[in-house]
Amino acid sequence: MAQLATPASPVVSQPVPEVSLTPSPGTTLALGRGAYEGTLDISAHYAGLAAVEQTTIDRYLLGITEVPSSWPDESLAAQAVAARTYLAWTLFRGRSINGNRYDYDICASQYCQVYRGPGGAAEPWASALAKTSEEVLFYEDRPAQALYSSSAGRRTRSVQDIWGGSGVPYLEAVDSPESDYTPYRRWELEVTADQFRRVFARGGYSFGDRISNVSLRSPGEGNGREYVAVQTELGVTSIPATRFRAVFNVYGPDLYPGLMPAARPTGGRWPQTVLSYSFAVSYAPPQPSPHPMLPPSDSGSSGNLTVVGEGWGHGVGMSQWGAMAMASSGASYEEILDLYYGLEPQSGAGSLPETVRVGLLVEQPAITVSADGPFVLSAPGFDSVELPAGEWVFRRSGEGLRIVGPGGSGYDSPLFRPLRWQPL
């Protein structure tokens, strides 16, 4: 006879392909690290569930959390123009592959712009948005691709040197006056040849048994992408600098969590294993055997790879720490934008729609939403129903999703049915 157990939440739904959660005035819907005020659409897909918020442009910009609100006002104003411009460029360009698949215009992570909802927005950031209201950077009558990253070190990077292509004048390398401010002025990673080989084997690279040299090959600033050349008895393997960084960042911490990311001189660890594309590499080969009668395999070391770099992020466009440094020295936001982009803010009235769809999560087996007040839930084939505050869990089920609500029954909708017992 099967044992029976009372589930933690006795109310669930039958599967539906998608649901919409519209918060009542004053209600926010917490999801992950963010709290959102717009309509939240949760849908089922082959790879899992997706959560997308539809909100106004102003509320979206208010919810961007790219830099501390304690930074100087002019640096916040420069960030506001860059963020608004990047949004305008993204919408002008059109949706990405994932955007088309999951029905959103822009993602909420560092791969687009970090967005966590407007609820926690500080007054200085709101003031920066108001001060630069509707201002956008244009190039050839189109929104510019106003890229930015945390820290560039001494000099930003030309876009063609990172991702290839022909480049554009407003994304060329410039000196960044941030060395006295940025905590990322210098970072270092040292690994053995065996550790290096193992990490890159996870990334699909095979170097052979004996690494003789590792070097950075660059065609020169503005002339295209850099490569890391690994020389072994099998020949030379060329790894794009972008791939070199990605392999270390993805597989290094998994294989060697005590080593990667490396320790910071001031304590703690760096946020990533290889922080930027502005780095140099050097390789010290194995030392000869300490005894002439011992075989070469019994050498005194296995060889060491050292990566020394500066900055954090891709380094293209505006450096956020550079903007902070310039503002601290009295520069205006227009001067900051002129240094990094060579463009002047203009009125962007009419270049942005009223609303935007933001991809919060994709490809999730389950999504938990905590409502701090009532909200209206809608699902295809059912009348809308107002639901109370509490924690609501959405789980993938077959080709649709199921809803598990807070304890108790009495939700007046055929969408729900009680489930008081289930087999263990």
Task: Report on this structure.
The chain has 2 domains: 226 residues, no CATH class; 123 residues, no CATH class. Helices cover 21% and strands 29% of the residues. It contains 9 helices and 28 strands. The strands form 9 sheets. The protein has a 7-stranded mixed beta sheet with strand order 8-21-7-6-3-23-24. The longest helix is centred in the N-terminal third of the chain and has 21 residues. The N terminus and C terminus are likely disordered.
* CA-based shape: globular
pLDDT under 50 segments (min length 5)?
Answer: 1-10, 419-424
Number of helices: 9
Helix % is: 10-25%
Please tell me how large the radius of gyration is.
Answer: 26 Å
How many domains in all? 2
**Beta-strand residue percentage:** 25-35%
Strand tally is 28
Largest sheet: 7 strands, mixed
Order of strands, main sheet, comes to: 8-21-7-6-3-23-24
The whole-number mean of residue pLDDT values reads 91
Q: Gap between N and C termini, in Å? A: 11 Å
